[in-house]
Design a protein that fits this description.
By secondary structure, this protein is mainly alpha-helical. It has one domain. It has five helices and no strands. The longest helix is centred in the last third of the chain and has 19 residues. The radius of gyration is 22 Å and the shape is globular.
Length: 133
């Protein structure tokens, strides 16, 4: 017979063993961000914000500050394509373009993952608010 409780006396409450795990030391300093998921989430939020006139200027400023002036032009191009297209799948196509663009940017500059996550949170919150005309 196996005694499952034999070592229970020696364990601190809530731990499987008395040894500290790697999670407990200073090696893990922050959350792990999954870049492909972050790129998809960012792409979907950007396209939703483009469909909202009151967020375009704010988003344009934030993307340009974060990723550089080429993103100002990319956002403007996306806005124009969404505005003038008759394609029903235009938002999905734009989201695909932005996913690739953001994935490339995160691959070249992984340190931008945190600021991009914050931008996604901010944009999502702004999209949930009614426009203040």
């Amino acid at each position: 017979m196996i005694d499952l409780f034999r070592y229970a006396v020696n364990r601190p409450h809530g731990r499987l063993s008395g040894k500290l795990s790697k999670v407990d030391d200073d090696l893990m300093t922050g959350p792990v961000l999954h870049h492909p998921r972050l790129a998809w989430d960012g792409a979907r939020v950007i396209v939703r914000a483009l469909e909202s006139d009151h967020l375009y200027g704010w988003l344009n400023e934030r993307l340009g500050a974060m990723f550089g002036p080429q993103y100002h032009q990319a956002l403007s191009d996306s806005f124009s394509r969404l505005w003038w297209t008759e394609r029903a799948d235009a938002p999905q196509a734009e989201a695909g373009l932005w996913r690739a663009r953001l994935a490339d940017a995160l691959q070249q500059n992984p340190h931008l993952a945190g600021p991009l996550r914050e931008l996604i949170y901010d944009a999502t919150a702004r999209l949930a608010e009614p426009p203040s005309w």
